[in-house]
Amino acid sequence: MSRSWLKLTCLLPLGLALNFTPLQGGDKASKPAEGQAKPLSEKEQRRRQKKLEQELAGPYKRWLSEDVAYIITDEERAAFKRLNTDEEREQFIEQFWLRRDPTPDTAENEFKEEHYRRIAYANERYASGIPGWKSDRGRIYITFGPADEIDSHPSGGSYERPPEEGGGTTSTFPFEKWRYRYLEGIGSDINLEFVDPTMTGEYRLTMDPSEKDALLMVPGAGLTLMEQMGLSSKVDRFTRSDGTRLGRGFGDVPARMNEFERLELYAKVQKPPAIKFKDLEAAVESHIKYNTLPFQLKTDYVKITNSAVLTAITVQIQNRDLVFKEKEGLQHAVVNIFGRITTVSRRVANVFEDVVQVDTPTELLQQAASRSSIYQKAIPLAPGLYRLNVVLKDVVGETMSTYETALRVPKFEDERLASSSLILADLIEKVPT
Questions:
Q1: Are residues 261 and 369 in the same domain?
Q2: Measured distance CA(158)–CA(150) in Å, rounded
Q3: Backbone phi and psi for residue 365, each to the nearest 5 degrees, phi listed first
Q4: Which domain holds residue 213?
Q5: Same-domain status, 167 and 201
Q6: Least trusted range by pLDDT, from 16-25, 75-84, 139-148, 328-337
Q7: What does the radius of gyration of the chain's CA atoms come to, in whole angstroms?
Q8: Between 20 and 30 A from 212 (CA), which of 230, 303, 304, 357?
Q9: pLDDT 10s digits, 274-285
Q10: What is the structure's pLDDT at 36?
Q11: Claim to verify: residue 230 and residue 188 sit in the same structural domain
């Protein structure tokens, strides 16, 4: 994903050094009227649902319920089910992967390739009477990738409990502990435990570390240290109110062992990967417009092929409108950018998110404040009419602005004379390929 703040004369993603003419103001966004669709009757809803089930009975159903089951958001799933033709579904699938492509300016989609590699690995490694992608380990692997550390006990056997689980020695069912150093949207030091209590190879994600204890139901066996010293009874394990059957621990209990922490973690890992800037996405969804951070926006169009046009979205902001904060001897400003392009039928065509920043020495802050900064995002789109929503948020100053406009992507036909957008520049330089 390309991101940078640029001076007025510098290299942009298109390979040109641009000096932009005045842009249209971000506070002059048009507000196209939107009619409300008539609600469907109960009979029409049933007929539409039946038709949808028939249409999705083929490869599209498999794509929705298998290929992307763990990474598609609820909003995307609902939008996909509202589509009426195979052509719309194909376009949705194409844009679904493009939205997640870390390098949309290249032919390869690394996210898509990695996703299907994970599915193949899960099917090969975690199958146990059911396909590997359906297992708990497969789901976690497909969603979050390989764990940073895995403590595997494929045969179970003797196990020395850690202090937070009560200490002492017991015998266990096969189990694995996966540790992730960091998962975006979830947190740091994430520990997940999978147990195979049926000895069939089907490991289940558990919230109760005692589920792996094969001697849990055997009186007098597999006692914790407290139970061995007579300070507690094994019966006490079955009267706990935190959803576990652990013996009483000793020492400081880690926060991750807290009942609510475990429930929250279990809920979070069931969800698809989160969008980075939910507050900015909410601003796009809202009908309330914010204009406390002035900016200007300009669009340009460059032909790629007969069916694809490179749409350059350029944002210009005055440095004096940003709030700077001193950090390690530099004045530092940070702006989050969220953009969404939708078709006239409100289908999401593209979403982009970036964190951009402006750094300047403290002694040059006054000079920097008199200049402008430019950000540009180039997106390939099919010719047609779209709606563009952009939100900018100054992280330090906590100001925000929203902007909405129409994108009329032209169709460049070979048999007709046409030109791309006029882009003024002081200097043209070749960019290494």
A1: no
A2: 18
A3: -60, -40
A4: 147-268
A5: yes
A6: 16-25
A7: 28
A8: 230
A9: 655 555 555 555
A10: 46
A11: yes
For residue 347, the Cα-to-chain-centroid distance in whole angstroms is 18
Across 226-236, b (16+ Cβ under 10 Å) vs e yields bbeeeebebee
Give the pLDDT confidence score for residue 71 in this predicted structure.
Answer: 92
Q: Which two tokens stand for residue 394?
A: 């100054």
| pLDDT value of position 247 | 80
Judged against a pLDDT cut of 60, whether residue 172 lies above it is answered with yes
Same domain, 293 and 253: no
The residue-averaged pLDDT of 419-425 equals: 74
Which residues, in sequence order, are CB contacts of 3 under 8 Å at separation 6+? 354, 355, 356, 375
How far apart are the C-alpha atoms of 261 and 212, rounded to whole Å?
Answer: 20
Q: Cα 379 from chain centroid? A: 19
Q: Cβ–Cβ contacts within 10 Å for residue 261, how many?
A: 13
Strand partners, 406: 387
| pLDDT (0 to 100) of residue 285 | 56
Measured in residues, the chain has a length of: 433
**pLDDT value of position 149:** 94
Asked if the model's pLDDT at residue 79 lies above 90, the reply is no
Determine, yes or no, domain membership for 91: no
Neighbours of 389 (CB within 10 A): 20
CB-CB contact of 143 with 134 (8 Å): no
**Domain termination residue (choose one: 233, 268, 303):** 268
Helix (H) or strand (E) holding 43: helix 42-55
CA–CA separation, 120 and 106 (whole Å): 24
Residue 190 CB: number of other CB atoms within 10 A?
19
